[in-house]
Amino acid sequence: MASLFSEKRAESHTASYVAATPSEPGSEQAATVATTEENQKRRLWRFWFLACLFLLLTSLVLARLVVYQLFQFGELAAYDPSQFMVPTRGAIVDRHGELLTADRFLYQIIATPNEIKSDQARQQVAQRLEETTGLPATETLQTLLDYPQGRYAEIGKPLDYALSQRVKEMQVQALAERSTSPLRYIEIRPIPARFYPQNTLASHLLGFIQANRGGVYGLEEYYNAFLNARGVGLIERASVSLASLPAQTRRFLPSVVGKDLVLTIDRSIQWIIEEELRNGVAKYRAKGGTIIVMEPKTGAILGLANWPDYDPNQRATSQADFARFANTSISAIYEPGSVFKIVTMAAGLDTGVITPTTVMTDSGYIIVGERSIYNSDRRANGAVTVTEALAKSLNVVTAQVADKVGRDHFYQYVRRFGFGERTGIDLAGEVPGLLKTPGHELWSLSDLGTNSFGQGLAVTPLQMVNATAAIANQGMLMRPYVVEARIEGEEVLYTQPEMLGRAIKPETARAMTEMMIETVDSGNIAARIPGYRIAGKSGTAQIPDVGGYLKDATIVTFVGFAPADDPQFVLLVKLDQPDPAISQWAAYTVAPIFAQVSRRLFDQLNIAPDEIRAQVAGVNPATIDPVSSAE
Amino acid sequence: MLQNRTISSSLSSTVSSDWGVPVRRVMAREQWNLLAQTLRLPDGLQSFLLFTLAVVVICIGLLLHLQLSTTVLQDRIRLQALQLEEQAVKEQTSNLVWAIVQETELNRVKVRAIELGYQPVFQRQYIIVPHNALAPDLQNPIAQSGE
């Protein structure tokens, strides 16, 4: 170190020496040699100093590496990225928190065949797996032999949680006994699987997912981007805390993914309508059917069922029948028939060309444009009020009303009720229906007449129920919706009921309601329920075919709401092609189904009869206490 | 390499083979010295100190980099271990949910209810309870008044 820092002294010495003896060549040479040696020594010292310093610092680095590589090796090796699975999807629950779909995990046994080389090893693996899971050893052996050079082979079908745990325990035990056991080349990998615990219930609403975990049909498709763990989140910033949901609804929320949907659907109502639809289809030997229950004041769908349905869990086995997957409530159009008369009558009342007591003459037929229109029974009823005409479902009078309203106003009202365009429900696959209006190349004046009683245009059942809901809701047309709330983590975004527009004035809606009540009381008596006033209308429509209509094939619909004074639900029942040997008329097929479903809905929704509600109207409504008559 | 070869050839020509071991030591030391001379370290004290400081700073930088990298790696691994734990919990949770929901599926509930002798109730009758007479006064709950 002395040499290392002796530079200054040596330099000054050299300088003074040079100054003192500038003219002596011998001394100068000796001094130069001494300086050179000094410099060399100093350089050596400095070199060794740096070398030692560098060695020391390098040793520190190496020491850290040794610690990481040797002593913390186990910790590092514990990480296995393959254990992380593919993204999962959020859950869907009904309005009371009943789980309708969610992801669960299944476990796939994965083998590395190229590491299990000997027959004995393969035999051992197959044998142990058979003992643990019941998977036939021959199947495992075959898989291992099929891919002898492969690094990846799936053994058997995915296992459930309990079985997978048994396999893991068996593997741990085998490796504890002998660390070179071929079972070390077996791995259990979790894979997410969608399950629909309610099986066929609400299958058309929910849809299902494909092998790539993308949603198809229903909510799975519509909310595909949201439900996916890596999909979009809640964009809007109007979300509130998850705690705002009732505790019962939060039972399974948030799910493991934390991106979930709470539906407006009530599982019990859904179950009721599916059961009644199934029974109705069987009873009237129909080819299919639909029931929709809707809350008129908000547009919330309480239940939506189609027949035939399918089980999303068993989708793979029903691949051939794609028609079953479509939600016919929103994607299949049909001529609604006489249920459409409520739209025509509402237009007449709203424009003021008629009142419920306006008397019109039914001569049995009317010519509109180039077409003669008859009543369904081909009879003339003479002078009738429009209320009677609606109750008797007279085509002739309805066409007269449409004529009075005028073509422009009539189609204006048809549009106001939401026909000819999508309702905007949050379900995939909705179609707008078919509506020809003046100006369309195929429209003619006769269309005004036929359209007035639901022929020559095509609607979806949802459009029909939504239009009826507008009458029940003081004339306001709401956007139907299925998702009550979207959840992301601890935040909830509620769907706000959305008014699409005013179809008719409130007083018109009240008048229409009275007319529809009269229709049920005097016309569609099979839809009546003692103690409740029900507003409704039936419709029997023929099925269009090339050049005319199918013979003896009808689509029957009944749509109505109850209780009429304070509508809690709008209900549509539709059957496709009921057996004419039983009946092909709505009044004898769907009307009784409507009554049966309504009766059960009153019980389910705890809606007391009109008289009771009227009595408690001035008292606290909470004093109504349901008691069972069976007790 | 050229210099090394030159040195060893010149040394071997001047030193006899009897002095083998010390000569090899000398040779090694000579080579180190030569290396030290070849490396052009700064001549001035100030510049040498600066040079040393630079070397130290670089080494410390390397050490810090290594330390930080490994710390990040360790934390990441810890995080991944926690994620694995979370994953296991999720799997157990979803398995439990699945089991619960299986038991509460409506068709199963219906079968079980029938087994237990329950029957569906239709046509409820409603009665009006006047002024909610039997309801407990929430201001003075029964449990408290009995104490």
Question: What order do the helices and strands come in, and which of them pair?
Answer:
The complex is a heterodimer of chains A (631) and B (147).
Chain A: H1 7-20, H2 25-71, H3 73-77, E1 92-93, E2 99-111, H4 119-133, H5 137-146, E3 153-159, H6 161-177, E4 186-195, H7 203-206, E5 208-209, E6 215-216, H8 218-222, H9 224-227, E7 240-241, E8 259-263, H10 267-283, E9 288-294, E10 301-307, H11 328-331, H12 341-351, E11 359-362, E12 365-368, E13 371-374, E14 382-385, H13 386-392, H14 395-405, H15 407-416, H16 445-452, H17 461-472, E15 476-478, E16 483-488, E17 491-494, E18 499-502, H18 506-523, E19 535-545, E20 548-562, E21 569-576, H19 590-604, H20 610-616, E22 624-627
Parallel strand pairs in A: 1-8
Antiparallel strand pairs in A: 1-2, 2-3, 2-4, 5-6, 7-17, 8-16, 9-10, 9-21, 11-14, 12-13, 15-18, 16-17, 19-20, 20-21
Helix pairs in contact in A: 1-2, 4-5, 4-6, 10-19, 12-14, 12-15, 12-18, 13-18, 14-16
Chain B: H1 2-14, H2 20-38, H3 45-103, H4 106-115, E1 125-128, H5 142-145
What does this structure look like?
- The complex is a heterodimer of chains A (about 625) and B (about 150).
- In chain A, helix 12 (about 340-350) crosses helix 18 and helix 14 (about 395-405) packs across helix 16 (about 445-450).
- The relative contact order of chain A is 0.10.
- Chain A is an alpha+beta fold and about 625 residues long.
- Chain A folds into three domains: about 5-70; about 100-195, Alpha-Beta Plaits, CATH 3.30.70; about 270-625, Beta-lactamase (3-Layer(aba) Sandwich), CATH 3.40.710.
- Chain A is built from 20 helices and 22 strands.
- Helices cover about 40% and strands about 20% of the residues of chain A.
- Chain B starts with a helix and ends with a helix.
- The interface between A and B is large, with 69 and 56 residues.
Properties at a glance:
heterodimer; A: Beta-lactamase; 3 domains; five-stranded antiparallel beta sheet; 22 strands; 38% helix; B: 147 residues; disordered N terminus; disordered C terminus
